[in-house]
Structures are given as structure tokens and as C-alpha cells.
Amino acid sequence: MASRKAKSGTNAQITLVVNGEPVEVAFAPHKTLLEVLREELGLTGTKHGCELGECGTCTVLLDGMPVLSCLVLALACAGKHVETVEGMAEGPELHPLQQAFADLGAAQCGYCTPGFLLAAEALIEANPKPTRDEIKEALAGNLCRCTGYLKIYEAVELAAARMRGEEARPTEESIYGRRA
What we know:
Layout (H helix, E strand, L loop, with lengths): L11 E7 L2 E7 L5 H8 L18 E4 L2 E4 L12 E3 L12 H9 L8 H14 L5 H7 L11 H14 L8 H5 L4
Parallel strand pairs: 1-5
Antiparallel strand pairs: 1-2, 3-4, 3-5
């Protein structure tokens, strides 16, 4: 990534690591990490949601921990590592979480999906075999208006199993829903 300059006014300038690449970026000092990622660095996978820290659509990993980027001043991120949804895949290979979400149809409109993916990634990194309750707790700060969350939880369970090296496949029930 190249250095980017803010459009006007007195600029702050920091260096940080975004998706594994060192980046130097200049921006207005009042900007949040969300604004810098989207507006200055062009990483639009991180979404604007409520901008009050209540919906989770702006979740990114900051030094491996999920944070709401709408509440973090970009200045506070100098020297830190930031991971966005754009940094999850390895070239053309989707991250196991992304693949599981696709396999199970866990993403409906997709707006909240990046936040869920990053929160789930942090969970699985800390706990490779989370229980359903632990998944619910880790994702509790992420809201979705399209789903009932079940497919999201199942996708996290499937991805965690795959990441542990288990032979895990989606079940017909998890793909097509519960049958009466």
C-alpha cells in the first residue's frame, strides 16, 4: 500500500501495519480508524453501521483483538497491526471462516458479515474448539438484521472444525434448515 495524504487541514501521520503490510497514512486527527481504513486506504470491507459502537459492522482486529473501529481514533493505532476482512483470504483461497459462511449461506445481505468474520477469527485464534455458548458470547456485539444467527453459529463451528484439521462438511440440515 502506498502512502496516502488527507485532503485538507492539519494532518496527522502515522505508520501502522494493515493486513500484513506496513502503511504510512496521513489524515485529519479527528478521524476514526473506520474512516481512515475506508476513506484514506480504500478498504471498504469494514462497514459504517451505527457509528455508536452498538452494531459490530465496523469490527476489525487490532493487534489480534476485535475492536469497533468507529470508536477508535486512528491516532491511537500508530505502530499497531490492523486486520480487516480484506486481509483474511490468502490470495484466491478464502479463509476457512469465509468458506464456511459461503457453504452454509450464513451471509444474507453481507453487510454485517465482515464484522462477524473478524470477531469469529479472534475467537477461534484464542479458543480453537469453542462451544456454541462461547460462539454466541464472542459474537454478541455483532448484529444482523437478515438472519436468525443459527447459520452464523453453525458456520463458525464448521470453520473451527476445519481449522483443527477435522474432516468437517456442512450437513444437509445446516445448509437447508431444519425440516419438520
